[in-house]
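User: Second chain of the day. Same drill as before.
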Amino acid sequence: MPAATFSIGTQDDAAGADARMTMTVFEPTDRPATSLAVVFHGRNGSGDAPHMVRLLRPYLRRGYRVVAPNLCGSDWNDSAGTGSDFTISMQVRDGRRALRWALEHAARARWQIDRMALAGHSMGGYVASQLAIGDLGGRLDHLMLVSTFTSGARQIEARRALAPDALEVLARELPKAATEWPRHDILPQAARFTFPTAILSGAKDRIVPARNCKELFDLLPRGVCYIVMPEADHCMEGKTSEGFIAGALDVLEATVATVATS
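Assistant: Same format as last time:
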């Protein structure tokens, strides 16, 4: 996967904080890129992590150029901040910065964009969802969400079920989570998903249980594909998961093509 890395931003003026962020741009290996996908990693992640590659590769094989930002507030990438700095609001802010950069860079570089997609894993799915309903207008062809965060209340319920001390551990990891996470909920906004959407879950996922993803999917006006990956826990584990992601992308592209020709 040929890739180039770019750096953006030096200061978040509103927060008065360092907001340096890097962006990795992946190119297809066997054809010129004709479409663009911006793909967001989850909390404390990186755009090129091994599990994220399972989400990137199906897009690259279909001729998408993939922009994979390294969002701030992670111990696993070279952007500003550490994992303990993370807030959902920060991740949505940086997702918006990354999307703006991708579109501006595409215009400068004269990228051909036949299709525009957003995708995200875990907390990155929440970021992609917020940008899809609020930032892209009619430019978005489709949205793909994998093990996506949907609601702070649901996420705290899931965390509580992991272990007796799970909420205490969360409070040590992320002191702001208990008060900030419940303010974030995509479920009441589901009617605004006016574009084809696919959601995938891991059958073994206890961090974002499949039922949480299915709850969102059942509310969507244009939910076209819901898949439970049988081998996967939270991070798309197993040899079959990438194939399921590729299959969901096939359904999304076929849906878009049908609408375009009808």
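The helical segments are 50-61, 88-109, 123-134, 152-162, 166-173, 177-180, 210-217, 241-261.

User: Great, on to the next one.
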